[in-house]
Amino acid sequence: xxxxxxxxxxxxxxxxxxxxxxxxxxxxxxxxxxxxxxxxxxxxxxxxxxxxxxxxxxxxxxxxxxxxxxxxxxxxxxxxxxxxxxxxxxxxxxxxxxxxxxxxxxxxxxxxxxxxxxxxxxxxxxxxxxxxxxxxxxxxxxxxxxxxxxxxxxxxxxxxxxxxxxxxxxxxxxxxxxxxxxxxxxxxxxxxxxxxxxxxxxxxxxxxxxxxxxxxxxxxxxxxxxxxxxxxxxxxxxxxxxxxxxxxxxxxxxxxxxxxxxxxxxxxxxxxxxxxxxxxxxxxxxxxxxxxxxxxxxxxxxxxxxxxxxxxxxxxxxxxxxxxxxxxxxxxxxxxxxxxxxxxxxxxxxxxxxxxxxxxxxxxxxxxxxxxxxxxxxxxxxxxxxxxxxxxxxxxxxxxxxxxxxxxxxxxxxxxxxxxxxxxxxxxxxxxxxxxxxxxxxxxxxxxxxxxxxxxxxxxxxxxxxxxxxxxxxxxxxxxxxxxxxxxxxxxxxxxxxxxxxxxxxxxxxxxxxxxxxxxxxxxxxxxxxxxxxxxxxxxxxxxxxxxxxxxxxxxxxxxxxxxxxxxxxxxxxxxxxxxxxxxxxxxxxxxxxxxxxxxxxxxxxxxxxxxxxxxxxxxxxxxxxxxxxxxxxxxxxxxxxxxxxxxxxxxxxxxxxxxxxxxxxxxxxxxxxxxxxxxxxxxxxxxxxxxxxxxxxxxxxxxxxxxxxxxxxxxxxxxxxxxxxxxxxxxxxxxxxxxxxxxxxxxxx
Length: 750
Description:
By secondary structure, this protein is of the alpha/beta class.
């Protein structure tokens, strides 16, 4: 066998999230959602990363959707041929979380033979393919389709779960038999999400049951389920599995050539019978006892078992080669990097101990959709991966650089990588073994990674200017949340318009990035103070750009929608011509030009109309407070803007900084409203009386500075922020949470 015969080198693989699952009569297709089915060029991007092996779909639902004997090979012919030209080996998947085309399903008695029929056709079409995954994660798919009822055929019983799993495993063996008739050396790369269950003492029996159940797909394939196996009797007692069918597996074992282990931060679970400690959506049971099922990382003070422990368990049980076949963390960019780096380090350490770990697979190369609802809804919720699809073309993220480094035998180099991930920080604990008073969970407070800790831990911080301002404080809050060391300085501590002061501070703290959240913000007053406005909004960013360019430090600075004149009815793009109407807009436009002249690598972000839950001085919060106090509130009805939710803006800017992005970007929530409409929408969500909102005309406002009547922003580089409707809903929930916490504090102090 030639496939993966180099034991001396730990490889880096890649994979596309390619699920085709079914909910009712609707097929959910990731390859359609992510556009890969129309973009052959994705494969060239993968080759540029240095990857030589990729998990790649030739899915049953795509190739033979209507008739088991009618095949459309056009998609796979083109893509597999291109992979061969690029020198990339595919590990071909035939069924990825699906139940098959509409003419079969996981509970169909003939499902195994139908899958084998398709597998044989694939092998005959592509006899050069060396490795297959006939069914991805059979245990997980059987649970979601036969036990929990999430996916088709939507059954919810142990009997259906067992039958679906046995069908998948029998189908896998028959599929490999059919493919090995064509290529006797074809490898079986069998994937499974390796979970681990923890519990209170009262539920240890359930945890033990599930920790044994997690091996069922591998044990069936290896011919290990005999009369001495803990699940032999359960399978027979289900009434769906005759003894002869179980004995068939003993007579026809097909042990995986590679054990493909998928592991996520949600793979480890904690079971607790004390339901009142946990949210209602986590409540369930086993028919004998009710309990909550939550992520163990949110409960266990000792933390996760992790890659090293779980992969070692696989090795001890089977002593066969192992590949981590999915590494993905749907989180912020630095957390994605940390998760990948930790997985790679675990593989290296296990290899040193004699565990035969061959490769790690960077999953979701172009991201994934709607897994936050387990692909039971089609909401368009997107998580980027190595590439980000929220633009005209896939955009490389910081993960792309990390993958190239690993593929070239290097380590991942980024200032954020070697810091603890959220799963290692105390604020991860939401329930369980944390202090409780009167059955109320007391959550640990986040530990700020401020300037002192940054110095003590010898980690380069992010330097944030404008330390007391709304935007600066939002960066402080979210750097703490994301575990990013920072140094926030106010105007007295750092005058950014003073080049010598900037140089001195930067030389001392040696930040890896600078966020310029300082500036002159009084738009009307700027008409009387144009020199002061220019000094703070233009000269200051220029001084920062000079120092950052000289020392190769990342820089982000902010501009405004007020660089435009509003003489249009379509959203402004980055390439749109600027023509500011007032002194403030002119200072911002001049800053854009000068910063990018001095430092083309700088990131200049145009944004608009801030609102957020953490300060009391933004438009939306002022409007809501007036309505709560039963006071009238006047809002401009003739000016269209694209409001920007500050948490979304800050998260996007931090991700772009980490990605190493540069140039001009428009970042605003997707939507166009007048200030009056914005106040109305927020009031309706807060269930406040909108009768007190007053429509104001241009004459009513008495603004000193002219403003564009239309300054809506969009982007030709990528719309990274969610919709305005989504942002307003989250704003409303966050404000409600803040009010609730304030009331709790008042009650406890009283």
